[in-house]
TrEMBL record:
This is Tyrosine--tRNA ligase. It is an enzyme of class 6 (ligase). The gene is tyrS. GO terms for molecular function: tyrosine-tRNA ligase activity. Pfam families: SYY_C-terminal, tRNA-synt_1b. SUPFAM superfamilies: Alpha-L RNA-binding motif, Nucleotidylyl transferase. It comes from Polaribacter marinivivus. Belongs to the class-I aminoacyl-tRNA synthetase family. TyrS type 1 subfamily. ATP binds at K236. L-tyrosine binds at Y33, Y173, Q177.
Length: 430
């Protein structure tokens, strides 16, 4: 077995661990779990850090357990939150659980006969039959209110600066999560819980329950909360969360997120979000420092993570789409793009709509540039641009006599017009 703690340390993924954790892991194969919030049918890249914790854990020879928090998802974790979240019904949670498992399957081995094959559990399965009276009698009496109030996740929400306060439902969250650890300790011999550094309080409540009720020893491992060098939140783009589901965030946009990271962040992220070894990463960093403008680190980071999440084929498509704005494309490569990727590539480009009747009759270039669209100020401007040979249709130069027809359609409804190297217009037929 590889030394898991050492692996986390050189990758910059270890924030804290309980004394004795490293020795505990070196004794034999151990089971550890991480909880995932099932309040959406997709994880986002903010979840990649705990996913990679589990993936590295399995690669070091130990058994990872992914816990989907069906029960805790009905409550809402107050850690790092300023208000209470919306609660979900069981049907929605079950659907989300299956979606989450499918995404985790890209990183974890759930299906092999290996002794350390991953396990997926849902805490709703053991909490749904637990009555309130049983819970406060069998679990609640072991943890004092003073102990619970001392947690940062509680103090930050009930302090004088908090406007929202904290519901009793949320206050009990650490007890429910702590009981999860105790349950897995009993049923799966799980001795370690892992999570972000903001989860330390919840995890240690679990170790306390294992000590008091289970007469055993539990351990905690936390990783740093990932931030961007400019201070903005990791995992967010201008459009919101960057999701692992291609329907929510296209592979092209997903790849672009990593490609656009700063040099400082790329050097940090390539250790955290890939399985590349220390020597390979050191070589890439050295190569990048010699010629930062080539963006070797960002390109390799984008490749590794996109292939992990979406597969090699989608990465190749994203790469091809990325070349389009830099002039390295043809009409054929444009027509290979699906509608969502095409719109993502040309997000923000000026659009105009022409009717299918006008289009079916054949659209002349003056109409496409000015008369029907107002892309250019006048028909005269359109003629001058065409005479200057500066107009392209789907990346191919055209003259004034060119007629746009159905053969030029991308995704069956778009035509890309271009003036010079950098000015694009999007024609939509409907």
């Amino acid at each position: 077995m590889k030394n898991f703690i050492e692996e986390l340390q050189w990758r910059g993924m270890l924030h804290d661990s309980m004394p004795g954790t490293e020795e505990h892991l070196l004794e034999k194969m151990r089971s550890a779990y991480v909880g995932f919030d099932p309040t959406a049918d997709s994880l986002h890249i903010g979840n990649l850090v705990p996913i990679m914790l589990l993936a590295h854990y399995q690669r070091c020879g130990h058994r990872p357990i992914a816990l989907v928090g069906g029960a805790t998802g009905m409550i809402g974790d107050p850690s790092g939150k300023s208000s209470e979240r919306n609660l979900l019904d069981e049907k929605t949670l079950r659907h989300n659980q299956e979606c989450v498992k499918a995404q985790l399957g890209h990183f974890l081995d759930f299906t092999s006969d290996a002794e350390n094959a991953a396990i997926l559990v849902n805490n709703y399965d053991w909490m749904k039959e637990f009555s309130f009276l049983e819970f406060i009698r069998d679990v609640g009496k072991h943890i004092t209110v003073n102990y619970m109030m001392a947690k940062d996740s509680v103090k930050n929400r009930i302090g004088s600066e908090s406007k929202e306060g904290m519901s009793f439902t949320e206050f009990t969250y650490q007890m429910v999560q702590g009981y999860d650890f105790l349950h897995l300790f009993r049923e799966n011999d799980t001795t370690i819980q892992m999570g972000g550094s903001d989860q330390w309080g919840n995890i240690t409540t679990g170790t306390e329950l294992i000590r008091r009720i289970g007469n055993g020893k539990g351990y905690a491992i936390t990783c740093p909360l990932i931030t961007k060098s400019d201070g903005s939140k990791f995992g967010k783009s201008e459009g919101g969360n960057v999701w692992l589901d291609a329907k929510r965030t296209s592979p092209y946009k997903f790849y672009q997120y990593w490609l656009n990271t700063s040099d400082e962040d790329a050097e940090k992220y390539i250790k955290i979000f890939t399985f590349l070894d220390k020597e390979t990463i050191a070589s890439l960093i050295a190569e990048h420092q010699e010629a930062p403008h080539i963006r070797v680190l960002q390109k390799r980071l984008g490749e590794e993570v996109t292939v992990l999440v979406h597969g090699a084929e989608e990465y190749e498509k994203a790469l091809e789409a990325s070349e389009i704005l830099f002039g390295k494309s043809t009409s054929e490569s444009l027509k290979k793009l699906d509608e969502q990727t095409f719109l993502d590539v040309f997000d923000g480009v000026t659009q105009a709509t022409v009717s299918s009747e006008d289009f079916s009759a054949g659209l002349d270039m003056i109409g496409a540039l000015a008369a029907k669209t107002n892309f250019l100020k006048s028909n005269g401007d359109a003629r001058r641009a065409l005479k200057e040979n500066s107009i392209s249709v789907n990346k191919e130069k055209v003259k004034e006599d060119y007629i746009i027809s159905s053969k030029d359609l991308i995704a069956e409804k778009y035509v890309l017009l271009q003036r010079g190297k950098k000015t694009y217009f999007l024609l939509k037929v409907e």
